[in-house]
Amino acid sequence: MKEHRTTRPSHKEWRRIAKKERRRRIRQKFAQERDANDEKLRAALMNNTEYLNYHAEQEKQEKEKEVREQEEHVERDRLWLEEEANTNRVSYNYIFF
């Protein structure tokens, strides 16, 4: 008797796999090109003094903003604590008088 080998996929299955692999290769190719372009752009920007100055200024402004926000937070917290203390004092006086 003749044995039937089933290790080979059907044509339909083979086409599905081939298309899937082709799409994967195309995606990888575009991703590699995108990454290479990003790296070239980053290198060009790092050689541009205007961009470096702009970037340094942005970082400086961001740090100043963080400091201001922290100071505002501390001030709001202090005011809230004062208000709580006054409220507790008023409540205490109201209860006993």
Q: Give the helix/strand class.
A: mainly alpha
How many strands in all?
Answer: 0
Strand share of the residues? under 5%
Q: Which segments are poorly predicted (pLDDT under 50) over 5 or more consecutive residues?
A: none
Describe the main β-sheet briefly: none
The geometry reads as: elongated
List the total number of helices: 2
Helix coverage percent: over 70%
**Could you tell me the radius of gyration in angstroms?**
34 Å
Average predicted local confidence, pLDDT: 90
Keywords: Ribonucleoprotein
Protein name: U2 small nuclear ribonucleoprotein auxiliary factor 35 kDa subunit-related protein 1
Features:
97 residues, mainly alpha, 2 helices
Explain what you see:
It comes from Lasius niger (Black garden ant). Keywords: Ribonucleoprotein. This is U2 small nuclear ribonucleoprotein auxiliary factor 35 kDa subunit-related protein 1. The protein starts with 10 loop residues before the first helix and ends with a helix. The protein has two helices and no strands. The chain is mostly helical. The radius of gyration is 34 Å and the shape is elongated. Helices cover 87% and strands 0% of the residues.
